[in-house]
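Sorry to interrupt, but I need a hand with the structure work. I would like you to pick a protein and set down its sequence and fold. Please put the record directly below this note.
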Amino acid sequence: MADALRDLLDGRWAELRRSSIDLLAKLPAERAPDRAEVFEQLGVLAAGGYSRIGFPVEYGGRADIGGSVVAFEALGFGDLSLMVKAGVQWGLFGGAVQALGTREHHDRYLRAIMSLELPGCFAMTETGHGSDVQRLRTTATYDPETREFVVHTPDDEARKDYIGNAARDGRMAVVFAQLVTGGRSYGVHALLVPIRDESGAPLPGVRIENCGPKAGLNGVDNGRLWFDHVRVPRSALLDRYGAVSEDGRYSSPVEGDGRRFFTMLGTLVRGRISVAGGAGSATKRALTIAIRYGLARRQFTRPGSGEEVVVLDYLAHQRRLLPALATSYALHFAQEELVSALHDVSDDRAQRELESRAAGLKAVSTWHATATIQACREACGGAGYLSENLLADLKADTDVFTTFEGDNTVLLQLVAKGLLTSYRDHVGDLDPWGMARFVADQFVGVVIERTAARAIVDRLVGGSSDALRDRGWQLRQFEDRERHVLEGLARRLRAATEANAFDVFNAAQDHLLHAARTHVDRVVLEAFVAAVDRCGDEATTALLDKVCDLYALSVIEADRAWFLEHGRLTPARSKAVTQAVNELCAELRPHARRLVDAFGVPESRLAAPILG
């Protein structure tokens, strides 16, 4: 069973996942290495072939986009500063050159980026417009007389902030700026701007500051950048989606500044997917430590036995860790589907769906990491607070994941807006005929809700919770909740006019976020169900069935208020959900070690004294 479970988790890129973990295991396992050590380890990764995975074959790469994300996930089992540095160098800096540049840029830079000969950074975020990228204030103004762009930071609000690789190692930055030519702005574009010379000194016109100590990830040299009329050649523009001729004429294969902006950002979705995967790996590492400790630690004596009780035998301890473990399994399989979608994306519609799913999964995965690592820390008591037992550093290093590569709240709003667009395309603009059809659908939905509630009550006569484990029923609850929340949101937003659109939208933000979350929950459950279905080992399938049940019912339990308010559950059946979660925790407790071992975290990355 153990091998079958590990094989299923390793998935499509099993060989690459394992070879990446093997490469990680060869690196020194220092705790909180300094920036020089992290950069040195980055060189070891480059020499070991890690950096080549996602880049084109003609430049020495392997052109395996999905594989590059899987390899990044593997780094999440080790020092997260190294993982983030690798992501900045090859995912963000190199990925931007690859995705936004043309052949000229690829020929000139990709090999040097892969080998680490050219360390770089990704300078998008500004102090004053962190999430509102479309309104960044840095400018890149074309001067046709010299055939150069003049990159300028107009004030401190426009400084580039939190830029990884900027404070110490980066020699070039992909700088996002408002492109101005012929007296007109054409929106945000990316340019390659050298920031240091060969000796490491800032170049003329470039001001660099260290962001200083952070709550975590101090092996990453985050810095601030200002540009004082810095001139770069016309060829510095990454011009796949927008070019400027020698005489200053602008051209683009994509019409409209807004569409062009979102097209450019869409090509960089790999970074967001990678963060979700890296957060998942850090969470698995924390769960492995906490569950293995819970199986060794004993507290209090069982009456009549004289023996102290293993703490994972306590229901309260199981409740702390096992639903989180089930969620990590669910998110793992959803991440696997997402990586495959990234690797195989073939058209604009698939790209839009990918971007929406990536935004939602990144938000949910990183919030899960924050909550679960905290639960693991508490589950290990005072020992979990000691840095030597790894959880404190994991907690500090992952905290920022909820706000980088997109603030989670903003990302869920993007998901909800995408759902509303799809809903509008399906229902129409709700003219009289569309509204009549909508009202009829609502009536049918209410009847279905009440019928479903009565049916579940009938099936649960006598207090049995077996029906709650019916996979079809679970899927219907997730689907119905998503549909109902989205339809209610659409009704609220129908009141919007040009004059009050902001106020109506702002007043519905809680509803908007709930709609996005219900959508992601449904997508994650479906991914888990699909993974169970493709498992060929009978014993492993039976075990995963229970893990999937625990995920589904713990989600329903967490949102019981909604299910009660909308007739999906009676009060008695709501209590039955809690009882079913308790029962599943007890049933999975003997398998807890097997479930975390299947993650494949290297023993060298579990060198916590509490594990012996």
